[in-house]
Amino acid sequence: MRPTATAILALAVQSYAGLIRMGCSQLNIQRIDPLVTPGAAPSPHLHQLIGGNSLNITMNPATHDLPSLSTCTTCQAADDFSNYWTAVLYFRARNGTFHRVPQLAPLGFEGQAGGMTVYYMTGQLADLEQTNKATAFKPGFRMFVGDINAKTLEAALPYRQLTYTCLEEMSTRWPETKYFPTKPCPAGIMVNVRFPTCWDGVNLDSPNHMDHISYPESGTFESQGPCPSTHSVRLPQLMYEVIFDTKPFNNPADWPDDGSQPFVWSFSDTTGYGTHGDYVFGWKDDALQQIIDEPCYVNCQTMKMQSIEQMNACTLEPQVVEDIDGWVNEIPGQSMGMRMQKH
Ligand SMILES: *[C@@H]1O[C@H](CO)[C@@H](O)[C@H](O)[C@H]1NC(C)=O
Ligand SMILES: *[C@@H]1O[C@H](CO)[C@@H](O)[C@H](O)[C@H]1NC(C)=O
């Protein structure tokens, strides 16, 4: 019998020789972006942010040492004070008002307050002996992936592993699309953000926050694609899974009658092609390198763990306070964007 694609994918994941998978609850949801628009309060669009509580409007890499400035983290790994963030999803009702779509805890992390799942993958399907080592990110390392202005598949393709999964159930992992699901998804919409895995070995950041990193020259991280000579240092694959709980918004009678889908990113993208993710590294000492050298699959001896209660207890009051919940007439900061964009 021909195995289903879902079965193949599940097998592939189980065969990773090195993989950190951890839940991270919500630190806050607000309009700041210390990587792309440091100092701007509010930043152009709304984000959901997780990780260490030294998160701030400005995080100067020369002076802002995340592990020493943080007193807690929302991530399961107690030594991880990094910050991770993505945009936020909104539902647009027929009457033109918007409602923020809340996030759901992943399977196995029931009770986690919002947030997302973070992966660091090191070994690969075909590399069970870990001959191909990964080098952990260095203090001060930051990166961004995606193009918030992408409105077509062509524009989104360079960011080849930013995708959506329409969840039939919480464990659905296939297929993935580059655009928003076009039909109601019974268990929610999962946003998958896989960062590039090759580094130039020198620059901790770059003006567009992407030039210092690269996807493999050919293929993917999963298929053992080689890093280009300009970016020869192999990083772990950082991946986010963000599950948006679209269940309350799945009534076909509430969807546009022209057959389009009603979800919109907090930066006014109704296509989904503009999805993006941000990362500011902040693991304590060499904790990340130790874990990825172990190597281990989810249960890592060298990873200091905290409970879901401890993760949830780490929160940070938003510095930019505005009305983001309930039915709102405009997505925060987006009045012009939505008016200009054909729905
Ligand atoms: C954010 O930075 C400002 C200025 O350095 C500082 O006063 C404030 O305490 C910081 N906030 C947090 C939550 O760390
Ligand atoms: C707009 O539509 C939503 C969803 O049907 C509804 O809950 C809300 O009350 C409506 N708002 C207005 C101002 O009619």
TrEMBL record:
<dbReference type="Pfam" id="PF09362">
    <property type="entry name" value="DUF1996"/>
</dbReference>
<feature type="domain" description="DUF1996">
    <location>
        <begin position="33"/>
        <end position="283"/>
    </location>
</feature>
<keyword id="KW-0732">Signal</keyword>
<dbReference type="InterPro" id="IPR018535">
    <property type="entry name" value="DUF1996"/>
</dbReference>
<protein>
    <recommendedName>
        <fullName>DUF1996 domain-containing protein</fullName>
    </recommendedName>
</protein>
<feature type="signal peptide">
    <location>
        <begin position="1"/>
        <end position="17"/>
    </location>
</feature>
